[in-house]
Amino acid sequence: MLNLTGKNALVTGIANNRSIAWGIAQQLHQAGANLGVTYLPDEKGRFEKKVAELVEPLQPSLFVPCNVQDDAQIQATFDTVKEKWGKLDILIHCLAFANKEDLSGNFSSTSRQGFAQALEISTYSLIQMAGAAKPLMTEGGSIVTLTYLGGVKVIPNYNLMGIAKSGLEMSVRYLASEMGQQNIRVNGISAGPIRTLASSAVGGILDMIHHVEEVAPLRRTVTQLEVGNAAAFLCSDLSSGITGQILYVDAGYEIMGM
């Protein structure tokens, strides 16, 4: 029943085969979507090569650089989408960053520069990319972002990223309110802790995973592909009445009090 054939999907945030964005891309491809992939450009082209090799089996028809701290690159990305595809149906936003020193220690010691950078990359980028995608979603569309429990509850060694995720979740609601009249739906997935390149910066990530395995109703954590399945659902017509929501894909951990 889940069929994305004929849908154009732009996926951001793939860094390696542990990325949640990679799990999402695989499931969108399996459902028949035509994929476009962005990568973070660097001077030596290491990310480009690594991501290109990883996504090759999915045969993306677009593969473009996009540093969300560069307005020109964001505009160029969506100009390319318009030129090559004409329209966009799905935008997957899997982008987050904070300096490691701003993830631990006293939260009141968060630096001004670190705060601005984390919110720009992790939160504002969704707003900006959604705004750029909106005129291309001429037949409606679905925008999905990734968040985490640390955006609503205090999580050790998450600090500044919790503020960024909180802002991201509220951005989902405001964007959903704005874009609903164009039949564009905006939702977030709050995934349980998964070992990724990004989560490796969070101190005690393995302890967090083991705790979830002991406490969550399913007595385990989740996989990238399980998050990918949820994303594919939110991008499909099966979720046509759902917008502005945060869907927890965390083996039920969020419901537990202790």
UniProtKB/TrEMBL annotation:
Q: Which reaction does it catalyse?
A: a 2,3-saturated acyl-[ACP] + NAD(+) = a (2E)-enoyl-[ACP] + NADH + H(+)
Q: Which GO BP annotation is one of this protein's?
A: fatty acid biosynthetic process
Q: Which residues bind NAD(+)?
A: G13, S19, I20, L95, K165, I194, R195, T196, L197, A198
Q: Write out the entry's keywords from A to Z.
A: Fatty acid biosynthesis, Fatty acid metabolism, Lipid biosynthesis, Lipid metabolism, NAD, Oxidoreductase
> What family is it from?
Belongs to the short-chain dehydrogenases/reductases (SDR) family. FabI subfamily.
Q: What is this protein called?
A: Enoyl-[acyl-carrier-protein] reductase [NADH]
Q: In which pathway does it act?
A: Lipid metabolism; fatty acid biosynthesis
SUPFAM superfamilies with a match to the protein in the record: NAD(P)-binding Rossmann-fold domains
Under the heading PANTHER family, the entry gives:
ENOYL-[ACYL-CARRIER-PROTEIN] REDUCTASE (PTHR43159), ENOYL-[ACYL-CARRIER-PROTEIN] REDUCTASE [NADH], CHLOROPLASTIC (PTHR43159:SF2)
**Does the entry feature the keyword NAD, yes or no?**
yes
Residue numbers annotated as active site: Y148, Y158
